[in-house]
């Protein structure tokens, strides 16, 4: 059984280690070769004369901000187009510890450091997880308007031009040609409501424009299944906020979601209460009401200050790269099943894509081609496919019925499970675990599932 364990970290920085998997997920993914067989063709793309490579990044969330910063630092002429510079992306805002280190995030943009997590079963059995955390370890809780603005500002400091504009469409050059992409957008200046229609020519485009990506449509990237996630930000009395100061809650059960979980995540002066579903989207408000009901004692007297909803992609799009256009983040479909996590993968994919462009263009001095962008896909898939796969399996096994969820919560009480779960979340690494502990875990899991099955049989007898 594959299991999850700690990456090699010194302080908050990861020490380079080889990719842990050589299989690729389905879709248009490039074949994955072991690193030692890497073959590089001699660079044939032409040198650019008198100018640097021009890249437009569409969308200024974590994917776009991280991409624009890496491009600008690498000598590429970079433009980032974001339709709403004060965008408040509907999001729980939970980020893993490794993101704080890898993206040099200042601690003052992190609202809360969560060190305790309560996993709450359908019958309201609560298991405390987090006991295995080391003193410096935590889950970061951010407000997206703060994180996104920080990453965009840093891209701007590195030399990227930030445009407050709405990407409309683009004309693509003939496939394989070296002609420019023509981008059409509406620029908002000085708060003008209507904005001004503008165009620009670039050599490559990164689509970081989220789940409803227009860049993805422009390259016929195909659709993905998606969940709808609903969230209310609730300002609760100070005394109640004290309870959540370093604690997050996850609720599982048919009432809160047939295929996902409900959450209460702490922010600076409020909590975010939400849930999601792929299979029963039209009933999302009922699930949200149930989540609120389950947490009622702890959020009583609270005032809803914001209501928000947004799609969450379920898997990568069939196509993520075409010629000199690449998709990153939610536009590509990089959210994990089971946990619904996408911020870290958005920022990492944005950065990896930008680094592939910088490398392929030899710091912005040469034209790039599709092969350069495919090196990003290969690296991303090699690094993260095991994480996606494990979480996919967990969701299929444990989120399918209330008895299975009871078993899941029961399993979470096990320290080995807690360590594996937290380590894999905090450090984003899946590696073979301790065989003896894995065996114990397998036996316990089967035991839990057998009990869950027996419970389900008893329940179905009662309801016949
Ligand atoms: C309710 C909810 C809770 C979530 N909770 C978590 C969580 O706790 N932790 C976690 O890791 N993930 C969470 N996620 C997932 C996470 O929000 C996404 O995976 C992440 O935001 C993806 O980042 P991105 O940069 O790819 O896209 P986005 O964050 O969606 O950013 C896209 C940007 O593009 C801009 N844009 C879009 N179209 C255009 C256009 N035409 N022109 C110009 N700009 C455009 C948008 O304004 C936006 O700023 C949650 C999602 C939801 C919906």
Blueprint of the fold:
Layout: E1 9-10, E2 13-14, E3 54-58, H1 62-73, E4 77-82, E5 94-95, H2 97-102, E6 112-114, E7 116-120, E8 126-129, E9 139-141, H3 144-157, E10 161-171, E11 181-187, E12 196-202, E13 204-207, H4 214-218, E14 226-235, H5 238-243, E15 247-253, E16 257-266, E17 271-277, H6 284-294, H7 296-299, E18 303-313, E19 321-322, E20 325-327, H8 329-332, H9 343-360, H10 370-398, H11 402-412, H12 415-427, H13 435-463
Helix pairs in contact: 1-3, 1-9, 9-10, 11-13
The protein binds flavin-adenine dinucleotide.
Tell me what the structure shows.
Belongs to the geranylgeranyl reductase family. ChlP subfamily. Catalyzes the reduction of geranylgeranyl diphosphate to phytyl diphosphate, providing phytol for both tocopherol and chlorophyll synthesis. Its EC number is 1.3.1.83. There is one protein chain. With 464 residues, this protein is of the alpha+beta class. It has three domains: 47-89 and 145-224 and 318-392, FAD/NAD(P)-binding domain (3-Layer(bba) Sandwich), CATH 3.50.50.60; 225-313, D-Amino Acid Oxidase, Chain A, domain 2; 398-463. The chain has 13 helices and 20 strands. The strands form four sheets. It has an eight-stranded mixed β-sheet with strand order 12-11-10-4-3-13-20-19. It has a seven-stranded mixed β-sheet with strand order 8-7-15-16-17-14-18, with helices on both faces. The protein has a three-stranded antiparallel β-sheet with strand order 5-9-6. The protein starts with 8 loop residues before the first strand and ends with a helix. 46% of the residues are buried. Flavin-adenine dinucleotide binds next to α1, β4, β10, β14 and β18.
């Amino acid at each position: 059984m594959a299991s999850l364990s700690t990456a090699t970290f010194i302080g908050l920085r990861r020490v380079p280690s080889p990719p842990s998997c050589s299989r690729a997920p389905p879709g248009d993914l490039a074949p994955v070769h072991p690193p030692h067989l890497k073959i590089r063709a001699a660079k044939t793309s032409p040198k650019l004369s008198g100018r640097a490579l021009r890249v437009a990044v569409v969308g200024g969330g974590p994917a776009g901000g991280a991409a624009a910063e890496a491009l600008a630092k690498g000598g590429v002429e970079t433009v980032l187009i974001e339709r709403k510079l004060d965008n408040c992306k509907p999001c729980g805002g939970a980020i893993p510890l490794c993101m704080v280190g890898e993206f040099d995030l200042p601690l003052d943009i992190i609202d809360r450091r969560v060190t305790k997590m309560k996993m709450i079963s359908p019958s309201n059995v609560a298991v405390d997880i987090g006991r295995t955390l080391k003193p410096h370890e935590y889950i970061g809780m951010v407000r997206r308007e703060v994180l996104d603005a920080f990453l965009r500002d840093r891209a701007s400091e590195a030399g990227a031009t930030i445009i407050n504009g709405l990407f409309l469409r683009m004309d693509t050059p003939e496939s394989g040609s070296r002609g420019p992409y023509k981008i059409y957008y509406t620029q908002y200046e000085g708060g003008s409501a209507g904005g001004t229609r503008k165009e620009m020519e670039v050599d490559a485009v990164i689509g970081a424009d989220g789940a409803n990506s227009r860049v993805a449509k422009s390259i016929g990237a195909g659709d993905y299944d998606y969940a709808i996630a609903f969230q209310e930000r609730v300002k609760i009395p100070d005394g109640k906020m004290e309870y959540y100061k370093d604690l997050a809650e996850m609720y599982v059960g048919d009432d809160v979601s047939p295929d996902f979980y409900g959450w209460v995540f702490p922010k600076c002066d409020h909590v975010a209460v939400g849930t999601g579903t792929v299979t029963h989207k039209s009933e999302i408000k009922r699930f949200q009401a149930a989540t609120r009901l389950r947490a009622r004692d702890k959020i009583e007297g609270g005032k809803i200050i914001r209501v928000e909803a947004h799609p969450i992609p379920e898997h990568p799009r069939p196509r993520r790269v075409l010629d000199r256009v690449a998709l990153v983040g939610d536009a590509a479909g990089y959210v994990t099943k089971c946990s619904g996590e996408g911020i870290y993968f958005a920022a990492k994919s944005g950065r990896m894509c930008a680094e592939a462009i910088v490398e392929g263009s030899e710091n912005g001095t040469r034209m790039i081609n599709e092969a350069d962008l495919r090196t990003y896909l290969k690296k991303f898939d090699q690094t993260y496919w095991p994480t996606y796969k494990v979480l996919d399996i967990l969701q299929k096994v444990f989120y399918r019925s209330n008895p299975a969820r009871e078993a899941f919560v029961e399993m979470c009480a096990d320290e080995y499970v807690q360590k594996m779960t937290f380590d894999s979340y905090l450090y984003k690494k899946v590696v073979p675990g301790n065989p003896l502990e894995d065996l114990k875990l397998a036996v316990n899991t089967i035991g839990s599932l057998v009990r869950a099955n027996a419970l389900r049989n008893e329940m179905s007898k009662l309801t016949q």
